[in-house]
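Researcher: Next entry in the queue.
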Amino acid sequence: MTSTTTTSTTLQTQTSPATFGPAVVDFATALGDPSAGRSAAALTEALLPQVSEAFWLRVSSNALLETTENEVLSMVLERALPRGVSIALDVDWSPERWGLPVGAAPTAEVKRRLRPLAQAAQLIRCDADEAEAFFASTDPALIQERLAQRPAVLVQDRRGGLLWSVGGRRGWMEPALLDDHDAFLANLLVRLGSQPQLLGTAGAGIEAIADPDALAEQLLAAAAADSPLAQGPPSAASARQGHPGSAREGLCDESRRTSFAPESMPTHVHPTPSQGGCPWTSRSWPRTSPSPST
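Model: Structure for this entry, 294 residues:
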């Protein structure tokens, strides 16, 4: 997955910090050129004040490539995590940067380096190929269950839609809502930073369940095409009622729908958002997506 590099070290909102909370620091952008002659310790000391004030530290697999960069990241995490900084892992696998052919799968060494980041992350974003390569599944809920921190997991499917598992809930977003996945992630991180209770990850083993209406509003707002941080999203209530202009047909909360689904529903039934339902039941995935590995 190719990410759009941010032009500043923090992602600010168009409204007051009191509304959306602290900034998101992008590790690669904040670090700059690690080969500029400064030691890893000096780079770490320069980064810590900024990182410590942020809610999120956004990191990709590319941060694990160079020795100095990897050392700085390790030292920053060692000191920032106890201060409450959350890790957003944007896998962004780029085999060419690792000296591998285009489209090559990550090696065992790459996976070994990524594992501590995944285990420490509060949120993981990847595409379907990256999910299969690094986590052996395209099911965000299964990926989430395998990690002690129970991070939020976002998986971009091969049609451009989004499979998500956040705060004890899971669902799907239509491709039509997601013209720019990188902008969506940036906006969502800021919004979740202002409402961390939606993550449902107060610590390892915590089984917090996010409020479905609040979570739906933040997902819809992050995906809104025109100034999503400046304009209010359609309310979850109006979305459920199919209010004109709402994104009801593009967002599905499977965990809420299936709680009302009759047990007699056959597993081959795949209701679609346009039919007022999720693209899968609790026992089956959409035919357009690969079956999750077990």
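Model: Residues 2-21, 202-206, 225-248, 257-294 have pLDDT under 50 and may be disordered.
Researcher: Noted, moving on.
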